[in-house]
Amino acid sequence: MTQRLDVIRDCLEGAVPGIMATCAADGTPNVAYLSQTEYVDGRHIALSYQFFNTTRRNILANPEARLIVTHPHTGERFRLRLRYLRTETAGPLFERMKAKLAGIASHTGMSGVFRLLGSDIYRVAEIERIPGAALAPPPPRASLLAALRAVSARIAGCRELDLLFSDTLDGLEAHFDIRHAMVLLLDGAGTRLYTIASRGYEASGVGSEIPLGQGVIGVAAREGTPIRIGYATLEYAYGRAIRAAAEANGLAAVLETEIPLPGLADSASQLAVPIRAAGRLLGVLYVESPHNLRFGYDDEDALVALAGQLGATMLSLQQASELQEEVLVPEPLAQPAAGRPVLVRHYAGDDSVFLDDDYLIKGVAGSIFWALVRDHVESGRSTFSNRELRLDPRIRLPDLSDNLEARLILLRRRLNERQACVRLEKAGRGRLLLTASRPLTLVEVGQGGARPDGACC
C-alpha cells in the first residue's frame, strides 16, 4: 500500500462519487458510480448497499473489486484494491451511513429513492495515486489540534457544572469557529435527551427534549456513535415544518409543554457526538452549520476527543459536588412578598408547571420546582440543600444516575429566561436559595387535569 487510508479520508466524503469496478464469475466486467463510501479504520472501508444490482451480484460471486475516489478540493484521484468481507444491516456503522446517505439523497434530489439495505465492509489491500495534475489544497480553517488544546484547557479549569457547559460552548466558537452548538443530557430513565445549554440560536431551547433514536442527535445517542451529515436533509426540515403548521393552525395548545429544540432553519452540515464517561452515555454534543460539508473526519475526531473530556469532567464535578455538600443550618424565615399573587399550577400527570398561564418546565425539574415552592409557601423556607432534594420522596429522582445538579441548572436557566418572579440561586456548596418577588398561590391538578389553552412559552 503506497498511501495510508486515513490520509485520503476526505476522498470518502461523497462530494465526488466513487467509481467501482467489479467482475462477474464469467469474467464480465462492470463499472458503476457509488453513492457513499465510509472510512471504518486504517485498513477497512464500507460501501453503501442500496440495490441488488450488477455490482452486488458480482461482489457476492467474486469478492475482488477496484474503487477510484477523488479528493474534493485538489482533484487528486486514488485507486483502491478491495476485497469484500461482509454486510452489516444494523448497529453504529449502519446507522452512521444511513444518516449520511439521507443527506446525500436530499442534496441530489433523490430522497425516497436512496434506501440503505446494508453496509458492505471491504478490506483495503492497496492504494495507489493515479498520475495527473492536482490543485493546491485550500488553507486550513484553523489548527484543530491547537483548538482542541485550548478548549481542553478551559474544561480542565472548570470547577462548576454550570460553567463547564458555558465554557465548552464558548470555546467551540472561539477556537473551532463553530457558532451553532448545544449540549443535551440523558435523563435518568435513559429514554430522552434534554437541552442543558446552547449557543447561536434565537431561542436557547433550554429544557427542550428529544427521544433516543429520533433525528441525528437521538440516533447518535442510541447507537453510541458520531453521526455526521454534510448536506441538508428533507427529514430534518420536515419536523420543523410540521411544528410551524401546527402552530399556524391554532394547535399551539398541543405543543404547549414542548419547548422547541433550537436549531438552524437552513442547517446543512450536522455533527452529533455522544458524551460518554465510565462506560455509560451522559449526553450528546451537537454542532451544525448552514454550509455544506462544514465538518469533516478531522472535525469529528477532534469533537469526539473533546466530548470524552467533557464527560469525564461532568462526572468528576458531580461527584465532587455530592461529597462537598454542606449540612443545612436553619435560617430565618423569608419575609412575605408583596403585589399581585402569581398562580402556580402543577399537573401531577407529567409534573408540568405553569406560572399563571406561562409554561415553565415539566418532568423531574418540574417535580423539584413544585417541592421547593410548596415548602416555601407552606413553611416559609428559602434555603434548601441538594442532599435533601436527592432524598425527597416527592421528587422521585429516577435513580442515582440522574444528575440532580444538571436538573437544577436547567431549572435556574428556565426561570431566568422566563423572567419569572421566582428565582433560584446558589447559596454555598450544595445549597440553594429560593426568592419570590410576588406572593405565590399554589394549585395542584391531579392526573388528567386540563391545562390552560394557548399557553406556550
UniProtKB/TrEMBL annotation:
It comes from the Bacteria. Transmembrane segments: none annotated. Coiled coil: none annotated. Residues 160-324 form the GAF domain. PANTHER family: 5'-PHOSPHATE OXIDASE PUTATIVE DOMAIN-CONTAINING PROTEIN-RELATED. This is GAF domain-containing protein.
